[in-house]
Design goal:
CATH superfamily of the largest domain: Cytochrome c-like domain
Structural class: mainly alpha
CATH topology of the largest domain: Cytochrome Bc1 Complex, Chain D, domain 2
Number of helices: 7
Bound molecules: heme C
Low-confidence stretches: none
Mean pLDDT: 83
Oligomer: single chain
Distance between the termini: 99 Å
Length: 170
């Protein structure tokens, strides 16, 4: 009799464990499936990544890219887009930490006008005191980013234009 009474629980225990095991397994599978769905693109990208050609690796380890980037072409410093000048690093250091140098290259002003813009930034945009750099910066700005006197654009020099025939067939 005692055996018969204790039999049902003995039977239940392994079944219950099996059930919990199945639930755990299913949960794991679901979590993994979700993870895969989330990362699918990244995983595929990683699997299909192209090996870097040896040339690129060499380029990376040498400083030639960096040199190219620091180059000056037609008086424009490529990295910053600012006009090349012995004092350029002062301007880069003082003026490009908060915003792009484009804000400078898109503006034109007299020395006084630039001074006012700097004052405005100091008043309203947390620009600090520029100290000894200020006259250097103002000289630079007034020299390269002065208002142009010849109007909005230079007149077109018809003689200098190289005309070409627009080929619509292609
Ligand atoms: C502390 C941060 C900071 C620094 C450093 C800074 N600026 Fe600015 N500047 C700003 C902010 C903020 C604006 C507003 C940007 C906007 O409107 O999107 C701005 C705007 C400008 C503008 C546009 C003004 C206008 O009227 O549209 C110019 C030009 C400019 N800055 C030039 C300079 C120059 C030159 C220097 C170096 C002396 C400099 N900035 C340094 C924060 C700074």
């Amino acid at each position: 009799m005692a055996n018969k009474k204790s039999n049902p629980p003995k039977m239940m225990v392994p079944n219950w464990n099996l059930f919990i095991g199945l639930v755990k397994f299913t949960l794991c599978a679901i979590i993994m499936a979700f993870g895969y769905l989330l990362l699918e693109d990244d995983i595929n990208e990683w699997i299909n990544r192209k090996p870097l050609p040896i040339g690129d690796i060499n380029k990376r380890s040498s400083t030639s890219d960096e040199d190219d980037w620091n180059k000056t072409v037609n008086g424009i410093h490529l990295r910053s887009g600012l006009h090349a000048d012995p004092n350029l690093q002062v301007i880069i250091g003082a003026c490009t930490s908060c915003h792009s140098s484009k804000l400078i290259t898109q503006n034109k002003a007299t020395r006084e006008g630039w001074k006012q813009m700097i004052r405005w930034m100091q008043k309203t945009q947390n620009l600090g005191d520029l100290g000894k750099s200020e006259p250097v910066i103002l000289d630079y700005l007034a020299k390269y980013y002065a208002p142009k006197e010849e109007g909005r654009r230079q007149n077109i020099d018809v003689e200098a234009i190289e005309w070409y025939v627009l080929d619509l067939e292609e």
